[in-house]
């Protein structure tokens, strides 16, 4: 049974990281929009959709579009630094999440650069050069893997399923289910 709880915890944690990463990324667009005098029309955060932020008024689209991935990596990094400084018992989970956000945002920007996918299209239209998008990925993706590497061996964690308690697996499932329900309820 310990292996089942370990798998439940891992799958829920990965799904939770994906959903939270989308939320942090979109919060960057929202913050960028509000700070530059924009008017947010709608934020799409749904577990079965790619997240996005629509602005009714966007006087500085270049700032708004870059605020998503920048806040999307900086906020989790700041949270990880705080977790380490205050010696939170869950600092390793926060470190994993920060690495996840670095890799996901970096891959999104660098990978979508040529085709102008999603935010990358707006970045290119507002004058961001291709090398800048690729550089963002070149910095963030290895940094994310570096954070993951510092966590230690995944094999060691996998060989000790008893380290994942039944309670932590159920709490993680409940947390992710709550996040999904909130996202579905508040999606337009």
Short structural description:
Helices cover 71% and strands 6% of the residues. The chain has seven helices and two strands; from the N terminus they run H-E-E-H-H-H-H-H-H.
Describe the structure.
This protein is mainly alpha-helical. The protein has a domain at 19-32 and 61-151. The chain has seven helices and two strands, in the order H-E-E-H-H-H-H-H-H. It has helices at 2-35, 61-85, 91-111, 119-125, 130-149, 154-158, 166-186, and strands at residues 39-44, 52-57. The protein has a two-stranded antiparallel sheet. A hairpin with a 7-residue loop joins strand 1 (39-44) and strand 2 (52-57). Helix 3 (91-111) packs antiparallel against helix 5. The longest helix is centred in the N-terminal third of the chain and has 34 residues, at 2-35. The chain is globular and about 55 Å long.
């Amino acid at each position: 049974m310990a292996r089942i709880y370990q798998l439940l915890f891992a799958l829920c944690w990965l799904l939770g990281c994906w959903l939270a990463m989308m939320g942090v990324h979109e919060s960057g667009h929202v913050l960028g929009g509000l700070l530059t005098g924009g008017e947010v029309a709608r934020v799409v955060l749904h577990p079965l959709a790619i997240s996005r932020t629509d602005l009714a008024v966007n006087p500085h689209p270049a700032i708004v579009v870059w605020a998503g991935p920048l806040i999307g990596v900086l906020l989790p990094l700041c949270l990880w630094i705080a977790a380490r400084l205050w010696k939170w018992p869950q600092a390793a989970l926060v470190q994993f999440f920060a690495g996840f956000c670095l890799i996901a945002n970096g891959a999104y920007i660098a990978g979508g650069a040529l085709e102008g996918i999603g935010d990358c299209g707006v970045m290119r239209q507002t004058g961001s050069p291709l090398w800048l998008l690729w550089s963002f990925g070149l910095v963030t993706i290895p940094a994310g893997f570096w954070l993951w590497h510092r966590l230690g061996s995944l094999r060691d964690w996998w060989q000790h399923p008893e380290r994942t308690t039944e309670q932590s697996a159920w709490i993680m499932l409940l947390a992710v289910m709550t996040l999904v329900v909130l996202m579905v309820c508040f999606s337009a």
